[in-house]
Design a protein that fits this description.
Blueprint: H1 11-21, E1 31-33, E2 39-42, E3 53-56, H2 58-66, H3 90-93, H4 131-139, H5 164-172
Length: about 190
Amino acid sequence: MHAEPVPAHDRMRLERLCRYTCRPPVATERLSLLPDSRLLYRLKRRWRDGTSHVIFEPLELVEQLAALVPPPQFNLVRYHGVLAAGSAWRPLIVPDSGPDSADSSGLAHSNCPERKQPSEKSGCRPRNYSWAELMRRVWELDVLECPRCKGRMRILCAIHPPEAIPKILEWLGLPTRPPPLAPAVPGEDSLYYS
């Protein structure tokens, strides 16, 4: 699998990428509701045994789709051999991502004689971002900017014992209990009919 960056000015490729990532898990134009509230999915090509469509109960289709979702924090790309994360030879063939490893063209030198030997520890910093950095990267929201003076705020402490949190919230005059959750109400466009 090869990931290729899309330049910001290439609007056609950017639109194609957005369409690809926003596509539904099944082709909705081939999915139809039967009178008995079951779902019929027409296949794109006939199977070898001649099957041209599949019929599901609504919950059964959701089960089939849920099986395709990988578990959280599950790495879908696997590397083996010298590209594996634990390989002692990986630093010799994978370019460094640091600023000192790239020349003015932005290319890393993978065949430099000054490269580390496989027995040395790699100085690679893991990508563990702080919550403030993640908020800035995802929502372009700088949570450490003071709303009054626009200066930089800093974290004074993190409160971990759960019994201390309600006391602090009460002292600040803030609610200590979360708001109640409203029950889910099925919409009119629901697949389930009574």
